[in-house]
Every structure is written in C-alpha cells, then in structure tokens.
Amino acid sequence: MSQWITEWIPQVMNQLGYGGISLLMFLENLFPPIPSELIMPLAGFAVAQGKLELFPAIVAGIIGTILGAYPWYYIGKWVSEERLEQLADRYGKWIGLDAKDIHKSNVWFGRYGHQSVFFGRLVPGIRTIVSLPAGVNAMGLISFTLYSLGGISLWVTFLASAGYKLGDHYELVEQYLGPVSKIVLVSIVAILVLLIVRKQLRRRA
Asked: Where in this chain does the record put each VTT domain (predicted)?
C-alpha cells in the first residue's frame, strides 16, 4: 500500500470526523486501492481514543459505502459488459481492475443472482465490482440498495469493531483479513450452492 494513502487517511478523518469517514468510504468504493480494511479499523481506533462514537462512525461508514456503490451500478446499467471489459483492459490498471475481474463478477452474479450482491459485500476484491453486474443485469435499484445495505452493514460493523478492540494495533486487521476472507469466501459459495440446490429440489417436487 502506498505510504501517502496510509498518511492521508488519518489526516482526512482527523479533520472531518464522521464526514471524513463517509468521504473515505465513498472514495474507497470508487477507487479500490483505497482500503476499507484500514479506514474503518482506524475509525474504531478513534472511538477507543474517545474522539468519536462507535454507532455514528459505523453509520457514517455505511452511508459512504452505499453512495460509492451507486456510480458502479449505473455504469453497469448504461455500459455493455463488452465495453466495460475493453475499458478495464485499457484503463483499469489505475484502479486495480481488468477485464477478467469484470467477467468473473458477471459470472458470479449470473450464478447466484441477487444474493451475490449481499455476500459479495463481505469479500475484499469483490465488494466494489459486484455493483457492475448488478447494473448490467438490470437489478432493480431498491433490491440493489437493500441487498447492498445488508452486506455493507455487516462488513463496516466488523471492521470498526475490530479496530475498536485492537486499539492502536488496528492495522493488524488488514494484515490478518486475507486468510479470514478466504474462509468467508468458501463459506459464502457453499451457502449459495446449498440455496440453489434447495431451490432446484423444490421446483422438481
């Protein structure tokens, strides 16, 4: 991670408080290299120091994240998948995306439907781009918002609470999140497969 990002995030949060949390989480959704895995644990650390309150910090994070999800949703709605993949290959390196990421996210959505928006919000690397296939596949805005809010709320609450518990070691959240994320991803896929199998069995019955 670039040093300027790790220095800039605390500065914005210190100067703008809850508004800074929302702004940072909004930008994190537009530019994936800005990590929520550092933003919200740092907010939790600020709570532990008595600078902020936990619930408003979580709400601020949720608001910023959901607002940051809408631009990607509408891009997916207005731009074809083929064109998105071309743009990702040409310019995606600036935000850490490529055509394969776009294709995988669309396959994920096609396989698991609306549930992928909820569960995708819990997995780093998928959290941001899951908004694109939702738009490409014309998922209703209300459904998109509700499914997103469910997953976002869990993710933001987890990160902020972890930062609060770890105190000045909040940066360890990002360090240990990788292995945990893999377990979460495997669990999510297993749950979605189970839901699909149950649905197919009910149809046959």
From this structure: 34-164
